[in-house]
Amino acid sequence: MSDLKFTKDHEQIKIDGDVIWVGITKHAGEALGDLVFIELPELGASVDKGNDFAVIESVKAAAEVYTPVSGEVIAINENLPDNPEQVKEDIDTGWIAKIKLTDAGELEGLMDEAAYQAFCEAE
Amino acid sequence: MAKHTALHTYHAAHAKSMGEFAGYEMPFYYEAGVLSEHNAVRNTLGLFDVSHMGQIQLSGAGCAAFFEKITPSAFSKVKHGVAKYTVLTNPQGGLVDDLIVTRLADDVFFAVINAGCKDKDIAWIKENLPADVKLEIFDDRALIAVQGPKAEAALSNCIGEDLSALGYMRMAKYGDLWVSRLGYTGEDGFEVSVPADKALALWQNLIDEQGALPCGLAARDSLRLEMGYPLYGHDIDATTSPIEADLSWVVRKKDADYIGGDIISAHRENGVARKRVGVNLIDKGIAREGVKILNADGDEVGALTSGGHSPSLNKAIAMGYILSDYSAADTEIFLDVRGRKLKAIIAPLPFVSAKTKSNKPNTGKAA
Predict the structure, then answer these.
(1) What contacts B161, CB < 8 A, 6 or more positions away?
(2) In this predicted model, what pLDDT tens digit does every residue of B66-83 receive, in sequence order?
(3) Best to test chain A binding among B309, B314, B315, B337 (most A CBs inside 10 Å)
(4) Does pTM top 0.80 for this prediction?
(5) Could you read off the pLDDT of B132-175 as tens digits, one per residue?
(6) Domain that holds residue B15
(7) Which of B137, B155, B174 is the last residue of a domain?
(8) ipTM of the complex
(9) Residue A64 sits at the chain B interface (C-beta within 8 Å)
(10) Domain-terminating residue out of B137, B166, B194
(11) Domains identified in chain A and CATH numbers
(12) Contacts of A17 (CB under 8 A, 6+ apart)
């Protein structure tokens, strides 16, 4: 089992001190189909938990990505707009943005991998 | 409860994404994915189930005259076996549907109408039907589109007929197969009307023996978008005249004695306030139906009616209506995508050149 955390909106999160890396889950990547563009958040933007802060454009539709925590966007993955399929890779290469947390308490309630798998099967 | 086509068992077993379209449960894409399906049609061979579309036949002495009443096109001199793209017009000069009409005999015309407009079109035709024209609806026939550069060889092999002499926008009957050389992709190809109980065998043979890739509605949409073909309910509807919709080529010159003809003639003579145009995005992003078009001052001057990623061009393209002052090619505009203002320019249609079969005789000289 990984140290990753997961949301009900199919984001996956890597926690690195007070910085969290936000990406999408393998399950979400498969459901989206062929990807054509990713709209990144602005560097330095402050985001609130639950905001849609990035958009994944597939051949069929636009899918919003929600930030699971509040904080400041301190890095964005500039490779993604030109290589959107990379978002389906592991979070170390497929991350969308890194957010500096303002409230570590917001991490509580995120699912671990086993809970997320059970959530996907039940969905 | 969604309706099923004759090929539903295949779709249910093989589609990766299915959904409801015009009241039918249809495949959006199969295992290969939308991009591979799109590219198969451009480069080799793709197959589409379009059995949800309506197949109708009108017959009787007043048939050509009737089509010249319900459409703005000329039908009196159309030769047997020739298909024409046209529109059904309403009294306001708008469109009830777009359709392909094929003259089978002096007094017999076959037509294929949009799935989502089927009930409305049939009611509209019945409402206007003269006593000397009879309407038949072929609910027992499926429709399979065979599209791509290998379509002629594959379908000829499959049905055991030489289709090389069948011209573009021409139809021929081979037993109970009605084969039309046309499509909605810009590639060479055919639409085959087949009795519903024989559809699955034909479909499966084209896949297993001829190497065709089954394609869903998503690829059909990206292919037609690249060609600038309008999709009813999106790029054209009851409020768009053929002149506004950049379909003035379907409007006959000889008279305006058709439904809505007075308004459409006035549009042609006096010009229109808005026009359907193509749009090329300059900034990165995807702009879809509903996105507002802004001028350099930020004023709203139009809206997109279709848009997405062009797999063939590997860039974002769109179509929409814009005030005529902004409709010239290369005019700079902005698209309001979730508050981001993406730079774009008006583009001539089509985005990708059609490779449909040429009906010009081969003179032996290089073009």
Answers:
(1) B174, B179
(2) 999 999 999 999 999 999
(3) B309
(4) yes
(5) 999 999 999 999 999 999 999 999 999 999 999 999 999 999 99
(6) 8-51+140-227
(7) B137
(8) 0.85
(9) no
(10) B137
(11) 5-122 (2.40.50.100)
(12) none
